[in-house]
Amino acid sequence: MGNLLCCVQVDQSTVAIKETFGKFDEILEPGCHCLPWFLGSQVAGHLSLRVQQLDVRCETKTKDDVFVNVVASVQYRALANQAGDAFYKLSNTRGQIQAYVFDVIRASVPKLKLDDAFEQKNDIAKAVEEELEKAMSNYGYEIVQTLIVDIEPDEHVKRAMNEINAAQRLRMAANEKAEAEKILQIKRAEGEAEAKYLSGLGIARQRQAIVDGLRDSVLGFSVNVPGTTAKDVMDMVLVTQYFDTMKEIGASSKSSAVFIPHGPGAVRDVATQIREGLLQASSLN
């Protein structure tokens, strides 16, 4: 019906290419236009001005000979003031953009090692965008943005990279664990040394208290019981302690058979040994 009435509708964000007898005439903006077909006017086609996206997957290799698939996303649109160039100069816009993306990526990525490619993917995207902008502007297209959305190494390479990362983390964990055990052993040794030192102080003070107590007992007994000597009192105290020790050994439920010399001579020998030890300790002090 529109053709019969010589009317053409152009949708929003779209322009129409008007030809007269097969020759480019003008660009028709969105809206309704009158095209007298009997005068040779016609619409050769429509051109969208919306932003379009093209995803390009390019296989290449890095400087360290690792093959990767680089996925680039190119956002582009036709310029309204150059719609004639965009419509007539290119027959396959997407194929042209893909060719330029391949050319730039395969020229940039082989100069980088794999780790550097991941770190410098913004630089790769910028190089692709600059090259596309310079080339496609002559054909009436604007490059809105170019992104490197993914860099995919071979599956074996990714597995090897993960194993290297895992090994590094395990080595760090082992070092930390060894350091913790080292600190624990040092602290344990310091604690044992401190405990032994304090135990030694306790034993020394205990023996000093025993010596002081025995001395006070001997002096008090000698004063209160006339005719006794210090030797008599000491012998009596040692015999008493001797029997107390035997009583404690026999009363213990965990005691096994213990063989000790017993008799007046044995007691006298024990008393002599203890007395000599005390005398030596007194002389040293």
UniProtKB/TrEMBL annotation:
SMART domains listed in its UniProt record: PHB
All residue ranges annotated as the Band domain in the record: 5-165
CDD domains in the cross-refs: SPFH_like_u4
InterPro entries (UniProt xref): Band7/mec-2_domain, Band_7, Band_7/SPFH_dom_sf
Key words, A-Z: Coiled coil, Lipoprotein, Myristate
Residue ranges of coiled coil: 118-190
Function noted in UniProt: Positive regulator of hypersensitive response (HR)-like cell death. May be involved in potassium ion channel regulation.
Listed name of the protein: Band 7 domain-containing protein
Organism this protein belongs to: Spirodela intermedia (Intermediate duckweed)
